[in-house]
Design brief:
Elements: E1 5-9, H1 15-33, H2 38-52, E2 56-61, E3 64-74, E4 77-85, H3 94-105, E5 110-116, H4 121-127, E6 131-135, E7 139-145
């Protein structure tokens, strides 16, 4: 059976879904580096929600929410802020499909992102041709380009 992956703009009722999924995806990395204080994370998320809202999308598989992404166009490229999938949806090709779609639609065919150094998602980005362009203490900055 072929599944249909779509995206729709995020709505107010998606707030807790996005918070919970972002927490599932990043908790261990954040906790290991800075510690996890739920109240502080809630405050940071509220600020993120306001800032990311115009570029925040819910990913739907056959109409059911399975993840979210956010980002914005920055001149000749697209900056991906987050791509998060429910744990049971990882490893099924959905992330690859989303990233390939972003590369196809991005200005100049370029997508930039950063990933925690310990995040295994880095292997996915590398498989799709993303190259490391820089790093911070905790992240790698990467860029992917559309292949012709």
């Amino acid at each position: 059976m072929k599944h249909h992956l779509t995206a729709r703009p995020c709505q107010g009722e998606d707030y807790e879904f996005v918070y919970d999924l972002k927490k599932q995806c990043y908790h261990d990395y954040v906790a290991a580096i800075w510690g996890w204080e739920e109240e502080k994370q809630r405050e940071l998320f509220a600020a993120y929600w306001e800032k990311a809202a115009p570029g925040l999308f819910i990913l739907l598989l056959d109409g059911v929410p399975v993840g979210f992404l956010d980002g914005q166009v920055r001149g000749e490229w697209y900056e991906l802020g987050n791509l998060c999938l429910l744990p049971e949806q990882r490893g099924k090709g959905l992330g690859s499909k989303v990233l390939k779609g972003l590369l196809d639609k991005a200005p100049g065919g370029r997508v930039g992102l950063q990933v925690f150094k310990s995040n295994p998602a880095r292997r996915l980005y590398e498989r799709l041709g993303f190259q490391t362009t820089g790093e911070t203490d905790h992240h790698y900055q990467m860029e992917g380009r559309k292949t012709l």
